[in-house]
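User: Continuing from earlier, I have the next pair ready.

Assistant: Great, send them over.

User: Here they are, in order.

Assistant: Folding the first of the pair now:
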Amino acid sequence: MFNRIRRLRQVAAIASISSLVAGCGVLSSDSTEEEGPIVVGTTAAPSTLDPAASWDSSWELFRNIYQTLLSYPPGSTTPEPDAAENCRFTDNSNMKYQCELREGLTFSDGHTLDAKAVKHSVDRIRKINVKTGPAGLLGSLERVQVLNDREVVFHLNKADATFPFVLATPAMSIVDPEEYPEDKLREGGSIVGSGPYTLSSYDDGNQAELVKNDSYKGIAERKHSAVTIRYYQDSPTMVAALRDKKLDVAFRGLAADDIVDIQADDDDDLQMIEGSGTEINYLVFNPKDPMAGKSAVRKAIAQVVDRPAIAHKVYKDTVEPLYSMVPKGLTGHTTGFFDDYGEPSTSKARKILAEADISTPVPLTLWYTSDRYGSATKAEFEELKKQLDASGLFEITLKSRPWKTYVEGYQNGEYAVFGRGWFPDFPDADNFIAPFVGEQNALGTPYLAPRITDDLLPNSRAQSDRANVVKDFEDAQRILVDDARLLPLWQGRQYVAASSEVSGAERALDPSTIMMVGELSRKTSW
């Protein structure tokens, strides 16, 4: 049987040999172009091609085609200049951030990329103000000032040490003012960017073909000149394509069964790369719903839900239970939901409902997306229904929709309770709290929490040293636990399945777990 430790030892041995002979050119990870494009499979198809509309995994595509002022070199959690030559706060209060662009930048259509294009790109996000779009990331921005062709200044309305991280998100992709209107979204199935690759063709929901952008100036590696990204509805179909050699890499949406099967497989043609992750999965309660809007109902659900059972039964321990919105590994993580609720208890939940004079069973409909987070999502919600129904306190109905219509539904407040996943915009606890609170947030469900938005987040953002913000984030999470408007369920790890002939997958994921496809290559020898 396949032994994962053995495979890792084999990889380590190969790496050791490579280091000895690299100087002689005996082994190389450079790809030969005759072999065609690297083909990557994922279940996360873009919902839009316009950065002003996206605060979701459309960023996977954006990161590789558009360019941002700052980005992440492999292995780094600190953003560094990409389209910019340098960036810095120019004051001591973290309220004025200035960037100087590289010389000679152009878009893929040949138009000049200058400071005016940067201002246009950021300003249109706020002007168009798409519901659940990325405008919420710019809450601390007062205005954008163009000093000259290459210099731009971001004036903030409050101290914000996280602003460089915001500029490094694909939401802040720089777009061509001649192609992207200032007051409406761009239509069509093409992209004009300045990133490491250009989009040569796009079949919505099915496939994107990328080719190397020869005019790119930035820090991204391009170890292969062409990459094809194929979008799948479920993990089994995607993994079958990988086994049939129709894919080189499978990422995002791998089901637990498929991960375990590949790890246990005796097929030396495949490898499974595993890494720590900060992806989280959680439930959202609509405060306007007659039942989900009741604090006691939400707390009773929090008291019944068995996270370890979900992690083990549904995800085969490829995820771990999560008891706060801030995942383990980040400054400010707590275990607030476990501290308050402990082990699942029907008797405690019954008492919560009885004290609020709520009759049981409580009828609720739980919604999930059928094609966004992988095929295990359905099984996860079936397990939630089983747990809640078994308590005798709830009567659960399950419903689902494809992602695009699912988003419209929660934006319109149609769901009492719905599931969401979150892949971080940047590696800071701020990004697991700020996007979910306030009048405008990533959920389309206003969550007024003035103590968080007016005090705790501003206090934390004034601190350049993020080790000094622990108390602020602990206090913010205390509020989230008390309100129980958001119910964290699990924290994921990162898995990439790939042909054994592919290298670079372990370096391809940035801190927000977005894949930089240029890091991928085919191994060649002699």
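And the other member of the pair:
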Amino acid sequence: MTDANEVDVLIIGAGVFAAKCYLDLQPESRLVILDRDSCVGGTWNSRPEFNLTFVCEMIGRGYDSFWTQWTVGTAEFSDQAMPRPPDEDIYLEFFKAKHTTKYIESYVDTHSYNGRTLCDRIQFSIEVQSVLKSGHEWTVSAKERTSGVQHSFKTPKLIVASGLTSIPNMPSLPGRENFQGQVLHHNDFGSSNVLISPDIQTITILGAGKSSADMAYEAVKAGKKVNWILKATDTTGPGFFLSPKGVGPYKNAFEIGMTRVAATFTPSFMNGINWWTKLLHSTRYGVKLMSSFWGTVDADARKDANFGRENQHGFEKLSPHSPIFWQNCTGGLLNHKDFFDTISENVQIYSGDVQGLENSLLRQKSGEKIPSDAILCGTGWIPSLQFFTEEQCREFGLPHLVAEEPESEKAHWAELEAEADRKTLATFPQLKNPPEHYHKTPVHTPYRLYRHIAPLSESSATAEDRSIVFLGQVSVGNYFPTVECQSLWAMAYLDGKLTLPSKEEQEKGVALFTAWCRRRYLSNGEEGNNMTFELIGYMDMLLQDMGLNSHRKGWFKDLFAPMWAKDLGGLRGEFEKKHGYKKAGKKGEVL
């Protein structure tokens, strides 16, 4: 590799579908993907023994009993179905995540363009350090994570697909250097020896979300003594864990969530403002009906957990602090029938703040000392955009420090968001009065990307100006269809084939989403990228921008049938025809 690598398209992160989308229409393009991991798959990369195609230099994230939060037929790309896992690896159509890993590995190996597979175009263990633009060209500086060798790439088109779960957020643990056991993030749990080591008998888990819950359950099943510490102050509280069971014709809760009719049960501009959404969310009757519906979902979830059961281990501390409708905490669907019974009977749960570590103990600020042979941190992730400067983040519309935002810009957005907030409350009156809750004061501004993909720009911007996009910077329940639609939109944008509204209208759209997101998702909405229940509306919005509708199935199925990956299968052909693409070579084939 030379010091200056010139390519037509550079992708930062695990953007394999974005690469596929681009190469489908321009197969001779010089396209390179830079991945900081040593295995393909991002969040779903594997432990070495599961990875049959790639040799991992560093540890992967997957572990034997890691399950997906999505179901067979929904967690794949539209052009290649995932083989159905064996029955023992399926529960209500949810499946063990190692099959997603194998699917992605197969995907990059079997898509070939101009004699090179997608896998051939990935450079693993490459850490991007800086991104600079000069004229119409981007220069990306990076280094190899293992050797430290420096590299430089030049490209006219840059796709940032580094996602939201790339860099672990490790808590400050004073005294860690004196701790005799292991301290691991969930990122490293899968390939660690904590569950099989005879030297590790007592495990302490930090965090209140699904990753912490999974680690607690697995540790109990491995025969370990388990402590689970929930933060007591400055917290939105423990996560909401829901039964995955379906009702009626739906096999599971995820299928229900992948229907348009279910999407309309949440107040969102993305669902459109029509007679039905007005009835549900803007009338006294509809608001009462929706309040009753969400109250029933909340009550059923708490009943399933039975937080009031007689228990000596602090199980009641897992009861969420706010109603499920508001999503002010993390959450997820359960993959084990016996989860709550296993936790209540075997896990000692604490609510307190950690002061530090010493020898083989974790010390709480209350003075309580908890014996621990290993500390497992389910403490989330930090932004994966560290290679951009604060000034670049402000320029592109990425989160940047509120304290460093110019006063004129701060006032500009405050005015836009105030008007947007008035519109939000006028349209969705049930958002006026949230329950009492912890609300974190934001340190960073929200995302301000148009359609959550592109920097705000004049509608008449040239193709050279449209040279950077951001994929996967939204919090959704299923990234596969999201990234598929985002990739098509991004390609149309980068190639100057997408007509945009004026910059003023773009800003109003961003401000409206920001104001709505804060009202709808409280603390979790401050980042301006939360779409927990808005996946289908968001996809429809992107496809409508491009004039595409082949994914629609007729009014009845559109409303009541789940959206499957295969439903997006006609988009590429429709996209080519709609936007005047002509094939310059042989299409990529699934080999």
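Worth noting for the second one:
The longest helix spans residues 284-305. The first strand starts at residue 4 and ends at 6.
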